[in-house]
Design brief:
By secondary structure, this protein is an alpha/beta fold. It has helices spanning 16-29, 45-55, 70-76, 92-101, 113-128, 146-159, 172-179, 190-193, 197-214; strands at 3-7, 34-38, 63-66, 82-86, 104-109, 136-140, 162-163. The protein has a seven-stranded parallel β-sheet, sandwiched between helices. It is globular.
Length: 228
């Protein structure tokens, strides 16, 4: 069974597509059969980015496609280990549908109140619809310094939600990487990619654990079969 990870938010510009691309590239490099579903049929951010990636023949190649809804994405990728959903921003209906089927729901957020308050409100709403808090994770994104990260992490804790360790630091070279069909963690400068490694590794750990839960090892035969 496929592990489904969704990136959602109430607003654009908080890093959904940035993190979805980074997770896809990282998971593929770790050997997970991965597909990235672009559910924003208007902007198609990750779909356009993947065309650049294909044109430049970036390794590893990724499976990326645009879908009109989450059901179509799941039906089209039944055999992958990991299906990543890049949801549209400010789309209440689709966001609820996406979150209802995802094993892990990640909401990126910047450090300012304008990002953090809508993030908390969305997770409160998802909880009220019956989605367990254990599925809901905040990813700190576009941080300028450690002070911002600490303050944002404290806000998430007071709101009652888990913020993944690590954070995505705001760097112009990340945008340059995207312009070349790279995920930001694939930038040649490892020092730039390092701050987000803790975040992605923590998320991958949760994904692998979920995959093992969905695919438990078969028990040994308790009783020997009779000889033919």
């Amino acid at each position: 069974m496929t592990v489904v990870v969704a990136f959602v938010s109430r607003k654009g510009g908080v890093g959904k597509s940035t993190l979805a691309r980074a997770l896809a590239a990282t998971a593929a490099r770790r050997g997970l059969v991965t597909a990235l579903a672009d559910l924003d049929t208007h902007q198609q951010t990750v779909t356009r980015w993947n065309r650049l990636r294909q044109k430049r023949r970036v390794f590893p190649p990724l499976t990326v496609a645009t879908y009109s809804n989450v059901d179509a994405a799941i039906a089209s990728e039944p055999d992958v280990d990991l299906l990543i959903l890049d949801g549209p921003g400010n789309a209440p209906g689709p966001t609820m549908e996406i979150a209802s089927v995802a094993h892990i729901v990640v909401q990126p957020s910047g450090a300012c109140f304008d990002d953090l308050q809508p993030a908390a409100d969305l997770f409160y709403q998802l909880q009220s619809l019956g989605i367990p808090k254990t599925r809901l994770l905040i990813a700190l994104s576009r941080m300028l310094n450690e002070g911002e990260e600490d303050a944002a992490r404290a806000y998430a804790e007071v709101a009652g939600f888990t913020a993944l360790p690590g954070a995505v630091i705001e760097r112009s070279k990340y945008r340059e990487a995207h312009n070349q069909g790279l995920a930001f963690v694939e930038t040649p400068d490892e020092e730039l990619a390092a701050p987000a490694s803790a975040l992605l590794n923590a998320l991958l750990t949760r994904i692998v654990r979920k995959h093992r839960t969905l695919h438990p090892p078969q028990r040994k035969q308790a009783i020997a079969l009779p000889a033919p």
